[in-house]
Specification:
There is one protein chain. This protein is 0% helix and 55% strand. Strands 1, 2, 3, 4, 5, 6 and 7 form a 7-stranded mixed sheet that branches. Strand 2 and strand 3 form a beta hairpin.
Length: 116
């Protein structure tokens, strides 16, 4: 399973291309850490544009996905969750929970980057 954390510092828009139903959670800080609350409706397989306000979000996927940053200020971190509680499996160790135990890939496209 791949967990994707999305850090948004200004109103932004992303496009997710997923092969399964995905839930995006907005993480709210509390005195004891964070509380996750579902952000919008579940995303059906396919391509969906998602507007995001400033904040911290995350989603998990068992299959390959593509995240395209359309506008705004978005940074990402992605980890592989092998079910052991360790963020990344060791080489040769457990693999993902996706099809055939394969670790899902995440492709990121940033349309906001300006080339000189």
């Amino acid at each position: 399973m791949r967990q994707v954390d999305v850090y948004v510092d200004q109103p932004s828009c992303i496009e997710l291309h997923v092969q399964e139903t995905v839930r995006i959670d907005r993480l709210q800080p509390t005195a004891d850490g964070y509380v996750a609350a579902q952000h919008g409706a579940l995303l059906a397989p396919g391509v969906t544009q998602v507007p995001l306000e400033a904040g911290l979000y995350h989603f998990r996927t068992l299959d390959d996905a593509q995240l395209r940053i359309i506008s705004g200020g978005v940074q990402m971190a992605s980890l592989i969750d092998d079910g052991t509680g360790d963020p990344d499996p060791e080489p040769g160790g457990p693999k993902g929970h996706g099809p055939c135990g394969r670790v899902p890939t995440l492709r990121v496209v940033d349309d906001t980057e300006v080339t000189p």
